Amino acid sequence: MHISTAHLQNRLGQYLDLAATEPVIVEQTGTPLVAMISYQVYQHLLELEDLVWGQQALVAEQEGYLSAEDTLRLLQQTGPGEVEHETT
Predict the structure, then answer these.
(1) What is the spatial distance between Cα 13 and Cα 8, in angstroms, rounded to a whole number?
(2) pLDDT score for 78
(3) What is the predicted pLDDT for the residue at 28?
(4) What is the value of pTM for the model shown?
(5) I need a surface site. Which of 6, 7, 11, 86 has the fewest CB within 10 A?
């Protein structure tokens, strides 16, 4: 459902109730400004985001980036300022 900011101001309670079951898009001068979603949907989106970042980290590690364990091991083996940096 799309509503204007004026409608939101006048009927906040009604749209909060509605956002618990379906997204409410608030528009200002006809341009989408804010999406109101239920907390449950918000939590689900955060979980999906975590999954995506986790997958990207696995891909990065497979492509040659150091794992967290390798990074820690490297830092423990060297003193401050001793890590060599590769230049391209």
Answers:
(1) 9
(2) 74
(3) 95
(4) 0.61
(5) 86
Say if strands 24-28 and 31-36 run parallel, antiparallel, or are unpaired. antiparallel
In the numeric block, the tokens 């409608």 are attached to: 7
Residue labelled with tokens 């804010």:
34
Handedness of CA 4, 7, 12, 13 (dihedral sign): negative
Domain assignments of the chain as residue spans, ordered by start: 2-37, 40-77
**Angle at CA of residue 20, ends 34 and 23, nearest 5°:** 40
- Quick one: tokens of 78? 């060297």
Separation CA 64–CA 70 (nearest Å): 11
Rounded to an integer, what distance in angstroms lies between the CA atom of residue 15 and that of residue 26?
10
pLDDT means per 10 residues in the chain (88 residues)? 94 96 96 96 95 87 78 79 52
